[in-house]
Design brief:
Layout: H1 11-21, E1 40-44, E2 47-50, E3 55-58, H2 61-64, H3 73-85, H4 97-109, E4 114-120, H5 123-140, E5 148-152, H6 161-166, H7 170-173, E6 183-186, H8 202-214, E7 219-224, H9 240-250, E8 254-258, H10 272-276, E9 282-285, E10 297-302, H11 303-306, H12 326-342, H13 344-360, E11 368-374, E12 377-382, H14 394-411, E13 414-415, E14 417-419, E15 425-428, H15 436-457
Parallel strand pairs: 3-13, 5-6, 5-7, 7-8, 8-9
Antiparallel strand pairs: 1-2, 2-3, 4-10, 9-10, 11-12, 12-15, 14-15
Bound molecules: pyridoxal-5'-phosphate.
Pyridoxal-5'-phosphate (PLP) binds near residues 123, 156 and 225.
């Protein structure tokens, strides 16, 4: 690819200016102000390029976002055409064709009677909207005390104060407390260290126990990802979601499926709930909806949940200026066209075995403990001792992930996620157009770098 970039500065100048002026998200900023930063200037397909022209395989799809791959000209055209036709109008009391068309298209793809689409600018806003909707729904239907939300440990549901009360990562929560009240947490489905004789539906039953403990008349909703990201791609046990659905129904508790990552083909289906055969009351989505070419998210609610808001002079008193932005909606429509034309969901279903097999082959490396996930959303858990499954302590984990792996993987041309919000994991979620060539490239870099990491930690 010949890279055309539009920046006026040298790579060093860009890096120094970033240190001076750009407040990067979730980034340590106290480091050496002259340390070079990874500056990405261009993307095409499964690859991105840095300011020096070096190519990287984007094994993270730009944070689980660019599912159809980088640099899609159809999306650029859709955005440009929409700006010429109608650059912006709000969905506060007005509507415009792109938001209407997109809402209809999403409703057709979403499971069951999830027919009402409330647009947002991203994932946290979608989750925030869902949390407000469930409280408001129970208020309108005569259960005003139902305000609590049950989520899972180490799950990430966003950073706004409401969404953060559902997020189950202590290090992200504690510095912003007190949070919105009502966030309760239960064990997740990471079964790697479970005793062999544990009931496979133990984690589902923990939700029933927590509802009982809190008092069923105080619990509004359960929020779960189809495959939990935090902790490293944790799939559900067989029957988990069916059991959760029963528990929710028995207690008049709503089920929110947070599919900010797990929709738009990531698990081989438009929506992750389809893969596991359950019917949520609300789905939250974002990221891959527009291929992240425009910021957009959505909360998709069932007819039953929307119904109380459609009566008389009631409304859902909640919104965002940019919700349903016409340029974002036009890009999302063009993105869904790509999904249909290229059958990206079918490609993931066809190739996930090969992708997973390549990761399984790394199990001979001493620090590779577990390999898990679904679709093009897979993780490797790194352990100190494979036999005992002993994990690294905080200092070792810091040295392994930040001191070595993150930098070394990047230097070797692979962008993926080295994360220790639970036990240390490497996460891979390439664009859905990835194929054998990219799997082999990922495998080669992982084998080189993880072998070196094993020797270093031995
Ligand atoms: C499951 C889940 N929910 C919510 C969010 C928050 O989305 P955003 O960063 O777009 O606000 C994320 C972000 O990664 C997520 O993975």
């Amino acid at each position: 690819m010949s890279i055309t970039t539009t920046h006026a500065y040298s790579t060093t100048e860009l890096s120094e200016l970033a240190h001076r002026h750009l407040w990067m998200h979730f980034s340590r900023m106290g480091s050496d102000p002259h340390a070079p930063l990874p500056i990405i200037v261009a993307g095409e397909g499964c690859y991105v390029y840095d300011a020096d022209g070096k190519r990287y395989l984007d094994g993270l799809a730009a944070l689980f976002c660019v599912n159809a791959g980088h640099g899609r000209p159809e999306l650029a055209e859709a955005a440009a055409n929409q700006i010429r036709e109608l650059d912006f109008y709000t969905t506060w009391s007005y509507a415009h064709p792109r938001a209407i068309e997109l809402a209809e298209r999403i409703a057709k793809l979403a499971p069951g009677d999830l027919n009402r689409v409330f647009f947002t600018s991203g994932g946290s806003e979608a989750v925030e909207s869902a949390l407000k909707l469930v409280r408001n729904y129970h208020l309108l239907t005569g259960s005003a005390r139902k305000t609590k939300v049950i989520a899972r440990e180490i799950a990430y549901h966003g950073t706004s104060l409401g969404a953060l009360s559902a997020t189950g990562i202590t290090s992200l929560r504690e510095q912003f407390e007190p949070l919105v009240p009502g966030g309760c947490h239960v064990p997740n489905t990471n079964s790697y260290r479970w005793p062999a004789d544990r009931d496979p539906l133990w984690a589902a039953d923990a939700i029933a126990e927590r509802i009982e403990f809190e008092g069923p008349d105080t619990v509004a909703a359960v929020i779960l990802e189809p495959v939990q990201n935090g902790g490293g791609c944790l799939p559900p046990q067989d029957g988990y979601f069916q059991r959760v659905r029963e528990i929710c129904d028995a207690n008049n508790v709503l089920l929110i499926s947070d599919e900010v990552i797990c929709s738009w083909g990531r698990l081989g289906y438009y929506f992750g709930s389809e893969r596991y055969g359950y019917q949520p009351d609300i789905i939250t989505t974002a990221k891959g909806l527009t291929n992240a070419n425009q910021p957009m998210g959505a909360m998709i609610a069932s007819d039953r949940i929307a119904e109380p808001f459609m009566q008389g002079n009631r409304s859902f008193s909640h919104g965002f200026t940019f919700g349903g932005h016409p340029v974002a909606a036009a890009v999302a429509l063009a993105n869904i066209d790509i999904f249909e034309r290229e059958d990206l969901c079918g490609h993931v279903r066809e190739k996930e075995g090969e992708f997973r097999g390549m990761l399984e082959d790394l199990r001979d490396i001493p620090i590779v403990g577990d390999v898990r996930g679904a679709g093009f959303f897979q993780a490797i858990e790194l352990v100190k001792d494979k036999t005992t499954k002993e994990t690294f302590n905080d200092q070792e984990s810091e040295e392994l992930l930040r001191g070595f792996l993150s930098g070394e993987l990047y230097r070797n041309g692979l962008i993926c996620r080295a994360d220790d919000r639970g036990d240390p994991v490497i996460q891979l979620s390439p664009p859905l157009i990835a194929d054998t060539e990219q799997f082999e490239e990922i495998s080669h870099v992982l084998r080189t770098v993880l072998t070196a990491a094993s020797e270093r930690m031995a």
